[in-house]
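Why this split exists: single-chain examples teach little about how molecules sit against one another. For that reason, every record in the complexes split bundles all components of an assembly together and asks for one structure covering all of them. Below is a record exactly as it appears in the raw files.
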Amino acid sequence: MSEERVEAEVVVVGAGLAGLSAARELKRLGVDAVVVEARDRVGGRTLNEPIGGGEIVELGGQWVGPGQDHALELIAELGLETFPTWCEGKNVFERSGRARTYSGTIPKLNPVSLAEVGVALKRLEKMASKVDVSQPWVQTDLARWDSETFATWARRNARTPAARDLLRLAIQAVWAAEPEDVSLLHALFYVQSSGGSLEKMLDAEGGAQDSRVVGGTQLISERMAAELGDAVHLGFPVRRIRWREMPGGVEDQPLGTGPHPVTVEADGLTVSARAAVVALPPAVAGRLEYDPVMPSVRDGLTQRMVQGTVVKCHAIYDEPFWRAEGLSGQATSADGPVSVTFDNSPPSGSPGVLLAFLEGNAARAATDLPPEERQQIVLDCLVRLFGPKAAKPEKFVDKAWAADEFARGCYGGYLPTGAWLMYGAGLRAPVGPLHWAGAETATVNAGYMDGAISSGIRAAREIAPGT
Amino acid sequence: MSEERVEAEVVVVGAGLAGLSAARELKRLGVDAVVVEARDRVGGRTLNEPIGGGEIVELGGQWVGPGQDHALELIAELGLETFPTWCEGKNVFERSGRARTYSGTIPKLNPVSLAEVGVALKRLEKMASKVDVSQPWVQTDLARWDSETFATWARRNARTPAARDLLRLAIQAVWAAEPEDVSLLHALFYVQSSGGSLEKMLDAEGGAQDSRVVGGTQLISERMAAELGDAVHLGFPVRRIRWREMPGGVEDQPLGTGPHPVTVEADGLTVSARAAVVALPPAVAGRLEYDPVMPSVRDGLTQRMVQGTVVKCHAIYDEPFWRAEGLSGQATSADGPVSVTFDNSPPSGSPGVLLAFLEGNAARAATDLPPEERQQIVLDCLVRLFGPKAAKPEKFVDKAWAADEFARGCYGGYLPTGAWLMYGAGLRAPVGPLHWAGAETATVNAGYMDGAISSGIRAAREIAPGT
């Protein structure tokens, strides 16, 4: 294998939103940075898939909403536009074999269950407001919340099966995991990081699923990469990072001078630099070889931060037939395996695209299946929710992110019980000249595209604070 | 880097007890196997450390006990001997600043707490008896137990602080983790795998800490390696395993014939083979690169199976001074950070060796400290437990396993909530020509040296069933 060698002030590992934002911010600060990306494309967990006629669907992250200022600003700066998520009409809720329509965020349930869900959401928000999202690990008084799963909390706080089902659907929708998987403290951290309202996180209009990017979110990364030009190296999977502490520290040395204590070794490319930004999901960053090895607080964090599991599916029809029937295309099913759907048609409204998510256990069961089987499982659900016209799409495209070598799951990383207090400090603290970015390292909108972008900017400024 | 190339019928990755047992069994079955080991020594998580005068202490796994037949047989076959763990005398129990002596396994507490612990242990054993250790993942009726941590179960089943403290100490002693970390189902699986009695797992005489190996447990691996001769390659960290499914499967082809669909790439060494045994902790196995990538059930398992955290410390004195005071050298402290101690003197009784464990959170806090600080923390505890003579050992040796690149924790891997049912099937099921060994993959005595040995033999027989 031929070995290309490059020198730079800063090397960025990963050309997703976090890595490219870091490189872009470094460039703005006058710092020479190169980006090394394993895949032959930029965008990380955002990915456009052409579906013909100049249209695309997004197989990865796609929505932006109010309060996601970093994302909204970047989209505007790059000359991109947003459009509102298609959501006019009635939503569908399915449970115990019955599908019913409703309006708003929370489906019509019996009054007791509805009241339980309402109280539970209020309690969660009140608890979340106590979490310091910048450093939950110092809040040792929150140990109790980190000792239990969301599942045990939900069992105590929702007694009716319908209310428990709704809470489960919320967990699946936000973390692509099950209530059993997630530490209660992690759920609270995440809610607080996203603005404090779990309900808003689940909403389309005015919520986290408010708007989409015309042309698809991968354009954000593609335009940043275009600005960076040949500083972005695609198709070089990083395997090893060698680093050393510099006597006296490199931080005090002016940029552009001094030694290069970091060597990033990819298949076919070696980059030496003064500092590095590792912009990968923690579970993936933990698989690199580090020399010297990571301190145990960092390694323990990457051992524990698990990737969610989702299969994002698109059934593409000649037209959005559900609209004629007064339906929004949004559906939620407690019966599964599809847990939630959206109308994901392009701005023109044609073709009609139903987006269906398999999340958590449903995605785990489906990921290793043959694609045809997975497709049939999803279409069967869509027929139940939207009628027989859903049975025969023109096209069906999906992506099982847990099978993706460089993501090993989506939407992102979450922590099981017992991890935040002992290992949270390993999430973002630099190790010598190595800095960490990625959606999971954000304090505001952690796990979202917005958090990825701000994390890259934050990592860049750690390295070039004075510029 | 020079590249050595080797061909073999089977390549074994890892020269710990599991890998060497696999290679030894393959040799017995007439199958040519080579072993590739990252470290410059064999033994994996067993490790002898010379302390002068021809004596050693064991920095890793050391005990064997009744029911660990694979270990006891192998020790005898290799011409090694065992001796009883030093345990004559009174034990010490410390809680709320008071150290008291007692006899037996369970310290003297107030009667209410003692009764609570007794009932809790009985309940655990009864629940554990329902776990099918060979495939808990098919027991979907156990989902409830996998939805909660040991901590929430213990809060419901032990109301007095003293009883909760004892249960916490038991979890720390067995998993080097905290009750918050471990799925209740994982705890039950492990108890059942170890014979069904948590109390026996904590016992010296007649229990899992019954006996030791004269000369140290690393001799087991060293003698197996000596039998295998130059088939064992030390100092070659494996980075990548390339494999392919053979049309028609290789399993039907007689050994010694056919293609070599596996290539194991280590730094400086490449081995091609017909099949592989990967005998690494799952958390470490998950960091290798696989081409093609692992199915998501396997990758999800390795993402979730976390290594426990322990610092194993030895304070070495001219003589075992505690014996003259009628003490066994065994102590348990709810005050910490040392949670448990043993008399770890060699068979001759001289020098006197106190073994002290930092486990779970105590180990996590201590792993990245400077060695002198860690030593002082431990000696301060030993003085509280055994008096001022403990303050000045002749020598102090410890090992923080979470900092070890090729273990990243000890005693072994455990599963947090939500993992057994969805990912347990990825623990042991072969993937094409790749087979999995290691203590964590055992059904009987999972996590123990005995389980490591039987897992290696099992993996060997998967590959060479007819021979």
